[in-house]
Specification:
The protein has a domain of 189 residues: Rossmann fold, CATH 3.40.50.1360. The strands form 2 sheets. Strands 5-3-2-6-9-10-1-11 form an 8-stranded mixed sheet, with helices on both faces. It has a 3-stranded antiparallel sheet with strand order 4-8-7. β9, α7 and β10 form a beta-alpha-beta unit. The chain is globular, with a radius of gyration of 18 Å. The longest helix is centred in the first third of the chain and has 16 residues. With 273 residues, it is of the alpha/beta class. It contains 8 helices and 11 strands. α1 crosses α2. The protein binds 2-amino-2-deoxy-6-O-phosphono-alpha-D-glucopyranose.
Length: 273
Amino acid sequence: MRLVVTKMNLGLWAAAYVKEKINAFHPTTERPFVLGLPTGGTVVDFYANLRLFYKEKLLSFKHVVTFNMDEYAGLPEDHPQSYHSYMKRHLFQSVDILPENCHLLNAQAPDLAQECIRYENAIRQTGGITLFLGGVGKNGHIAFNEPGSTLDSRTRLVDLTPNTIQANSRFFFNDQNRVPTQALSVGIATILDAKELLFLATGTAKAAAVARLVRPGVTTDCPLTALKLHPHATLLADPAACSQLTGTWKEQLEVLMRKAPRAEHWTLEGITT
Ligand code: GLP
């Protein structure tokens, strides 16, 4: 995998990347572009830039099919902090995507285990996810795959860790008691099945997880490290998220930044297990 570090707005970088990918794919009804999507604070700018590209007629979602990573259990879909509401607010209501092409987990389904199977099948039926975007939890979670999630995990009901509940309480009036304690989430294996991965990490809160990623090994203690098992994965990070890098990766990044201080981004290739 590679680590791309930029001082640019990460949302703009990622949105431009997605735009290029979709346009180069020339999607059609029969052969849509299947996009895996995250929620969270990190990707707010990403969605703002996608909306802008659509408004400027540089991008259409007419032949794009989306699958979201996760959804809180116990929140009605129309709750302002549900990921259904988030996606409507940040993307779906502002672009030409067809409602039947927007897939989210239904955490209100009477049989949640069945709902998870349905979701995995729906992804499979589209031919799989072309590009899966994601954020990173403070504790290194990807989607809601908390530390301890296995590499072969699939879409399932998960318990959120106290760390995640605390981190996400900022969206719930800083009241941890209002944060759902469970969620439906795609699994690590579901994410690794995608043809390409682009994950985003900003700020010092994510620095420990990013530092763990570049150290040798894949560990369920830090689910982000699973990205190293994917042949075509990128972590896009800002300098703050890279502030705890150590050893040769830290040195390599410093050399690259010194050589081309005005570069749009710096790339560390070949981060392996
Ligand atoms: C949330 C989401 C994740 C997201 C992560 C980071 O809990 N379920 O999919 O990537 O945590 O969120 P943020 O971008 O708000 O820091």
